[in-house]
């Protein structure tokens, strides 16, 4: 009996190998370049028709996931092995090595080897990262450049106007997105969506071997020097070399939630920015899609939507900690204002969650949106996004700004009102 089972197992393994070889052969027949085809792994759930014939797959590339789509002239694994799972890559993307799951990358985005890039991450056109970066729930606008040895999760970065004028994160930078109390209501905005999408704002620079503690906001044109930990918001056009060192020793209860109103306000604003970007992908990006980018932009919009869902989930996780926090605050004689806010948050969480989940309903000023779309309709063409948007006339830019800021403000205001005192 054991011999029969062993034989059956061997036959099944041989059949899997043969089927896999047929898939690799089909890729080669399509024109895909595989310098070492015997080392390539393509999972059964991958639709090879969604791998463009001009793609190059270097040795030990592994591809899986039914969502996976790889566009023209993509190069994978030039420096080291690449593992790709449920990712959508636009034209001319280069991934030199690393692990990628649930990622969307637009035209010309690239990373070097050692990257670990996970769900909710969107690289827009020509955004890039050097060696050994860790990213999750991260959105990088066009041209944004990350150095090496960076952890940059739960944040959005905009700014800059081109390859020679781009927002940049220096090597060794960390965005701290977790608190000792176990919550991650800590997303940070470096720039914003309403102005960032117009590709005309001053670049932001975050110095190397430095860090920021989320949630925080950094304005366009800000320069944060190297070697410091930044805990406070930085206004536009500010040069900040360091923050004063903080020395603190105090009684600490990790079960007590602190500073919730400020953290939630920033998170609501962050979700509002994602909602504005979602509207941008719904109405503006399709004008530049054409056949090659329709799927790409749809998947980018879904990535933004997943980012909103992640933020709602993280607020929900924090709310689940409120009952124990309230109990300890009451026992410790906390101020009535603090107790009242946490009680309201707990009581009104279903309403707040529903408000945030209806983000698509916050569509902004239709008049301003239509003014912008009317101008774009005269100039937009597939693949011309980086040329047309920066050249928009002032009236169209102002309409875009009013439209998207209305999305951000109306959502954030509705969320705040959901937990406001009566």
Overview of the molecule:
It is a single chain. By secondary structure, the protein is an alpha/beta fold. The chain has 2 domains: 2-240, Hexapeptide repeat proteins (UDP N-Acetylglucosamine Acyltransferase, domain 1), CATH 2.160.10.10; 260-418, no CATH class. It is built from 9 helices and 30 strands. It has helices at 2-30, 193-196, 260-283, 290-319, 322-331, 336-357, 366-379, 385-388, 394-418; strands spanning 41-42, 56-57, 62-64, 69-70, 75-76, 82-85, 88-89, 94-95, 98-101, 103-105, 110-111, 115-117, 121-123, 128-129, 133-135, 138-140, 145-146, 150-151, 155-157, 160-162, 165-166, 168-169, 174-176, 188-190, 205-206, 211-213, 217-218, 223-224, 229-230, 239-240. The strands form 5 sheets. A 10-stranded parallel sheet has the order 2-5-8-11-14-17-22-25-28-30, with no helix packed on it. α5 packs antiparallel against α6 and α6 (336-357) crosses α9. The chain is globular. The termini are far apart.
- The CATH homology group name of the largest domain: Hexapeptide repeat proteins
In total, how many domains does the architecture comprise? 2
Can you tell me the residue ranges where pLDDT is under 50 for at least 5 consecutive residues?
none
Mean pLDDT reading: 94
Q: Quote the beta fraction.
A: 15-25%
Number of strands: 30
How far apart the termini lie comes to 75 Å
At the third CATH level, what is the topology name of the largest domain?
A: UDP N-Acetylglucosamine Acyltransferase, domain 1
> In angstroms, what is the radius of gyration?
24 Å
Can you list the strand order of the major beta sheet? 2-5-8-11-14-17-22-25-28-30
The level 1 CATH classification of the largest domain is: Mainly Beta
Largest sheet: 10 strands, parallel
| Architecture per CATH nomenclature, i.e. the level-2 architecture of the largest domain | 3 Solenoid
Structural class: alpha/beta
Helix content: 25-40%
Shape field: globular
Helix count, DSSP H or I runs of 4 or more residues: 9
